[in-house]
């Protein structure tokens, strides 16, 4: 997907309905009374992804006070999400996008490079979506340290 097709602040957030942890389906447009934090991460149970999920879980009571849902999305299966959530006592919704529909729609399924090897993977990104379904803030190429606090601060301004 080219940069021009990547949703920007002010654009309508691409909706999706995908399997989530706990054996249910989750539809983006039906979450979060006042908005939704949608964060994309590469893989369950890796160090950065685990830290990010734990930090979002710790901040979840603050997001809930604001009426904002928190959803993590990766290409892992819902079954893997269940194990990941159980292992780390995660309370955020974890959505499985095995077909990479939402990952493509948000422009976060990208070519990456490690040790000179190119491969396709998830660019760690977060979208803050308002109650009206528009994207209010976008964070691309996220570094985990301090990120959840920054997202919570932006959510308070919705």
How would you describe the overall organization of this protein?
This protein is an alpha/beta fold and 158 residues long. The protein has a single domain (32-156), classed as Glutaredoxin (3-Layer(aba) Sandwich), CATH 3.40.30.10. It has four helices and nine strands. The strands form three sheets. It has a five-stranded mixed beta sheet with strand order 5-4-3-8-9. Strands 1-2 form a two-stranded antiparallel ribbon. The chain has a two-stranded antiparallel sheet with strand order 6-7. Strand 1 and strand 2 form a beta hairpin. The relative contact order is 0.23. The model has no long low-confidence stretch (mean pLDDT 96).
How are the elements arranged and paired?
Layout: E1 17-20, E2 24-27, E3 35-40, H1 47-65, E4 68-74, H2 78-88, E5 93-96, H3 101-105, E6 109-114, E7 117-122, E8 125-130, E9 135-139, H4 147-156
Parallel strand pairs: 3-4, 4-5
Antiparallel strand pairs: 1-2, 3-8, 6-7, 8-9
Helix pairs in contact: 1-4
Summary keywords:
4 helices; two-stranded antiparallel sheet; 158 residues; 9 strands; Glutaredoxin; alpha/beta
């Amino acid at each position: 997907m080219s940069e021009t097709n990547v949703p920007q602040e002010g654009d309508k957030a691409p909706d999706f309905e995908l399997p989530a942890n706990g054996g249910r389906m989750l539809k983006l447009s039906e979450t979060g009374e006042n908005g939704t934090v949608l964060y994309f991460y590469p893989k369950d149970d890796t160090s950065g992804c685990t830290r990010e999920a734990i930090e979002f879980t710790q901040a979840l009571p603050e997001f809930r006070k604001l009426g904002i849902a928190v959803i993590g999305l990766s290409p892992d299966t819902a079954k893997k999400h269940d194990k990941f959530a159980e292992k780390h006592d995660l309370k955020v919704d974890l959505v499985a996008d095995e077909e990479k529909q939402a990952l493509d729609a948000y422009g976060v399924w990208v070519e990456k490079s490690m040790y000179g090897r190119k491969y396709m993977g998830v660019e760690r990104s977060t979208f803050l979506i308002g109650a009206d379904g528009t994207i209010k803030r976008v964070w691309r190429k996220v570094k985990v340290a301090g990120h959840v606090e920054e997202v919570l601060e932006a959510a308070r301004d919705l």
